[in-house]
């Protein structure tokens, strides 16, 4: 008995007394450590907590400093370009204010408009940092595992159809730099038509899959039969087996957000291409703020948390879509309509649908479509501005066909880099429900330690990349790509240093065991005592993999953005970066 260490230092958690001071335990007659002087009891959930994991706070400030490093290089790049040829970027202004901001009382808050893009990026970064741990805490084990497996399918599935935004952004930026408003108008309508069509196809097909119970089970809980055999009598496993209706409702809500997401991405690409970064930033900030508002304001109400999450995620794209359309068609959007020549209309949208189906090879193309094709082909055929390219149908591609071809290239990359995580999750689900739940613990902490910050960097690269491509400064494009990649790798030692001393505390927090008493007893009773003693350390090993997975996580979004231009052969050499790290992460996940 004397060899049992019951001091606070021996545990990954700490107990507190009534005054909030940490207390040590004592060994009882059975040789088990107990904490009789702690303030634990019914209605006293704050008696214990994981060991400190507050280094995430320090990491946050350091990471913010790292992600702003590229800003200094970008200023130098623009300065060098401006000194060489001032006309190249004379229209690139990040702080353009619409005219209505300078009228009446609005002029006193007009300065806030200039922070739109930074507010949007900040919301995009901090939102998952707060949301993911809350989701992990409030969803049951079966719901959280089902959520992860559903996302493992839906995320790469969505990427198959989600390839329009970057192409639209680059092409509109290029068209506007040439003063071709007709091309910009046609491109925007073509993108909306394509996004709406692919979104409806994606939602319809996914709905059919979800309506077939065996298929839905295979996609959201592929290891259910083996888990029932492996853990007979385990309430958590039986709960997961009886959750078809819950998962079905979640699935249907999630898949029908695709059309709104697709069209919103096209409109965002249009705003980026038109250099309306602050407008896009404010719309993004308001839209993404709806998710935490819906989630946190309704958690205490009688609604299943998984359905609440789905409703929040469903609201985000349609809120952004509504705000974008209202702005672009209302008097507020007069300045952007005049600058871009884009006038959203139903008739033009119908024409664009026809172009998609006919691939633009029909006879009697409209003048606007011919102008659009000429402007888009002039760069690749070496035609100078003001010249009309040769009307050789055997050598040219239609604008619709070009969008589809380029979109398929980007789609292949997006799906490829996502498949490592998807395969790892499905292999874990087929192996053991406990292993799959380990991955949810990792997923809940990833935004705080890497993903959110690299998302911010990837977003800024997506904004700035098309500018360099449009003005044909490919050298600066690749310089900026290298800077962002280096900054992403700088986060790796920060992640290792801020997580390694606190793995146990992070694991316990992510597993709900120290915050929900009932979940503590149910989970450990089923998976340790009733099910198998080999799962006693199920939470802890997964965080040793965080450092390897972070390599994949940080390179995927950045590397993906580098392919959006597809302007130089050197880009293809970067293709191995996300694929190699994805394969490495998958290999290590499987081997461990």
TrEMBL record:
Q: What is this protein called?
A: Uncharacterized protein
TM ranges: 58-78, 105-130, 190-216, 279-300, 306-329, 408-429, 449-471, 483-502, 522-544, 571-590
Give the top-rank taxon of the lineage listed in the UniProt record for this protein.
Eukaryota
Listed A to Z, the keywords are:
Membrane, Transmembrane, Transmembrane helix
């Amino acid at each position: 008995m004397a060899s049992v260490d019951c001091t606070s230092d021996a545990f990954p958690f700490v107990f507190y007394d009534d005054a909030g001071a940490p207390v040590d335990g004592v060994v009882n007659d059975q040789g088990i450590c107990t904490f009789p002087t702690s303030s634990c009891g019914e209605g006293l959930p704050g008696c214990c907590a994981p060991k400190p994991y507050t280094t995430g706070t320090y990491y946050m400030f350091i990471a913010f400093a790292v992600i702003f490093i590229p800003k200094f290089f970008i200023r130098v790049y623009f300065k060098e370009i401006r000194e060489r040829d001032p006309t190249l970027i004379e229209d690139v202004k990040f702080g353009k204010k619409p005219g209505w901001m300078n009228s009446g009382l609005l002029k006193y808050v007009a300065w806030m408009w200039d922070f739109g893009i930074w507010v949007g990026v900040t919301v995009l970064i901090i939102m998952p940092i707060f949301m993911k741990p809350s989701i992990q805490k409030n969803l049951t084990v079966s719901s959280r595992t089902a959520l992860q497996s559903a996302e493992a399918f839906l995320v790469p599935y969505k990427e198959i159809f989600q390839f329009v935004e970057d192409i639209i952004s680059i092409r509109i930026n290029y068209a506007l730099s040439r003063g071709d408003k007709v091309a910009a108008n046609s491109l925007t309508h073509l993108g909306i038509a394509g996004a709406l069509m692919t979104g409806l196809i994606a939602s319809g097909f996914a709905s059919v899959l979800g309506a077939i119970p065996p298929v839905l089970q295979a996609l959201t809980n592929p290891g259910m039969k083996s888990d029932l055999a492996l853990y007979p009598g385990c309430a958590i496993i039986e709960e997961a087996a009886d959750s078809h209706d819950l998962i079905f409702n979640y699935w249907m809500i999630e898949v029908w957000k695709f059309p709104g997401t697709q069209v919103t991405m096209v409109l965002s690409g249009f705003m980026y291409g038109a250099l309306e970064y602050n407008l896009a930033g404010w719309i993004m900030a308001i839209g993404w703020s709806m998710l935490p508002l819906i989630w946190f304001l309704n958690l205490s109400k009688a609604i299943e948390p998984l359905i609440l999450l789905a409703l929040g995620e469903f609201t985000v794209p349609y809120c952004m879509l509504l705000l974008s359309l209202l702005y672009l068609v209302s008097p507020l959007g007069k300045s952007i309509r005049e600058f871009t020549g884009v006038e959203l209309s139903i008739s033009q949208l119908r024409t664009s649908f026809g172009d998609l189906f006919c691939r633009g090879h029909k006879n009697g193309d409209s003048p606007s479509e011919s102008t659009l094709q000429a402007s888009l082909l002039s760069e690749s055929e070496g035609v100078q501005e003001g010249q009309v390219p040769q009307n050789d149908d055997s050598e040219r591609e239609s604008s619709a066909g070009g969008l589809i071809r380029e979109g398929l290239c980007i789609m292949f990359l997006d799906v490829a880099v996502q498949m490592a995580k998807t395969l790892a999750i499905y292999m874990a689900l087929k192996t053991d429900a406990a292993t799959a739940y380990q991955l949810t613990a990792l997923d809940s902490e990833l935004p705080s330690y890497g993903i959110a910050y690299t998302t911010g960097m990837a977003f800024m690269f997506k904004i700035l990349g098309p500018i360099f491509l449009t003005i044909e400064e490919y050298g600066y494009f690749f310089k900026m790509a290298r800077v962002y990649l280096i900054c992403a790798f700088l986060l790796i030692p920060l992640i290792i240093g801020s997580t390694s001393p606190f793995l146990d505390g992070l694991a316990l927090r992510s597993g709900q065991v120290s915050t929900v008493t009932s979940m503590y007893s149910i989970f450990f009773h089923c998976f340790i005592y009733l099910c198998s003693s080999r799962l006693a350390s199920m939470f802890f090993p997964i965080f040793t993999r965080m450092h390897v997975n972070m390599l994949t996580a940080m390179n995927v979004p950045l590397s993906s953005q580098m392919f959006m231009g597809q302007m130089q052969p050197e880009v293809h050499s970067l293709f191995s970066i996300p694929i190699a790290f994805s394969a490495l992460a998958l290999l290590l996940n499987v081997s461990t």
